[in-house]
Specification:
Subcellular location: Membrane
CATH architecture of the largest domain: 3-Layer(aba) Sandwich
Protein name: ABC transporter substrate-binding protein
Order of helices and strands: HEHHEHEHEEEEHEEEEHHEEHHE
Number of helices: 10
Strand content: 15-25%
Structural class: alpha/beta
Largest sheet: 5 strands, mixed
Keywords: Lipoprotein, Membrane, Palmitate, Signal
Membrane topology: Lipid-anchor
Oligomer: single chain
Strand order of the largest sheet: 2-1-3-13-4
CATH topology of the largest domain: D-Maltodextrin-Binding Protein, domain 2
Main location: membrane
Distance between the termini: 72 Å
Length: 286
């Protein structure tokens, strides 16, 4: 063959390969496939949203990958095995980034506050809890810190001004009612309501729901959206390299869609309180 013939063949091959590559890239761009890592109820929510009309309108093709624990999920997100994760509070996110040797995460935006509640099988108000009472609180660092903040917000104790997301009983500066604290596995919280040795117990919303409780109705005190609970607001997170990804931002639009919120409110009886805040809301959170 002559040089001209080889040149023509080469040009055709380049066009074909380029066309195939462009077609594949266009298909990916049009569907915006995103792998979302999640756990328990959050995984259920995103499986529903993935099939919603809003997802179709936004041209989002969502695949949900469920994990059994948050640390593994955060590592998988930092390493790129998962595009975005939906499960964690801002304080948990901060703690991971502080300790992580597997890469850092960035927040995409806020989703909801799932209130932690104080429950009691004996008393109808936090004011009724007597001096010397035993209060059960999760022994996990992040959950214990959150519980102590709630007790302080209820006016039952005082904590240090520099109290952080992983601080514990050592940062309680005043315990005027001489409460005794019993550290427990959070999953046992629901079973302690009828324990004669416990006067009150702090229970996360996921555990309380599993026990047939509604934090908005059954807790004697629970978290509200305010300056004290900013660190407990849940977020969507991704690997630091994806900061500013516009496609991932569409997940917030999907989550905040009216139909999406109606589904979440109905299914979880209003216990996942939507939070629409800019990321600057977390400025100064420890």
């Amino acid at each position: 063959m002559g040089k001209k013939t080889w040149f023509v063949i080469l040009a055709v091959l380049v066009i074909i390969v380029g066309g195939v590559t462009y077609a594949k890239a266009s298909k990916r761009a049009s569907t915006n496939t995103i792998t979302i890592g999640s756990v328990t109820s959050d995984a259920d929510i995103w499986r529903h949203l993935a099939k919603s009309d809003a997802a179709k309108r936004l041209k989002l093709n969502i695949k949900v990958k469920e994990f059994t624990d948050g640390l593994t999920l955060n590592k998988a997100t930092a390493e790129g095995q998962v595009d975005v994760n939906a499960f964690q509070s801002y304080s948990y996110f901060q703690a991971f980034n502080q300790d992580s040797k597997d890469g850092k995460l960035v927040a995409i935006g806020t989703t909801y506050l799932e209130p932690l509640g104080i429950y009691s099988g004996k008393y109808k108000s936090v004011k009724d809890i007597p001096d010397g009472a035993t209060i059960a609180i999760a022994k996990d660092q992040a959950d214990e810190a959150r519980g102590l903040k709630l007790l302080a917000d209820a006016g039952l104790i005082k904590i240090a001004s520099n109290f952080g997301a992983l601080d514990g009983l050592e940062k309680v500066t005043s315990n005027p009612h001489h409460f005794k604290f019993k550290e427990i596995d959070d999953t046992t919280g629901g079973r302690l309501l009828n324990d004669n040795g416990v006067d009150a117990v702090l229970i996360s919303n996921s555990v309380s729901q599993a026990a047939g409780l509604n934090v908005l109705k059954d807790a004697i005190y629970y978290e509200h959206i305010n300056n004290h609970t900013r660190a407990n607001v849940n977020i969507l997170a991704t690997a630091a390299k994806n900061k500013g990804n516009k496609t991932y931002q569409k997940l917030l639009t999907l989550y905040r869609d009216k139909a999406s919120q109606k589904y979440i409110t109905d299914k979880y009886h209003g216990t996942k309180t939507e939070v629409v805040k800019p990321l600057s809301y977390f400025k100064g959170v420890k």
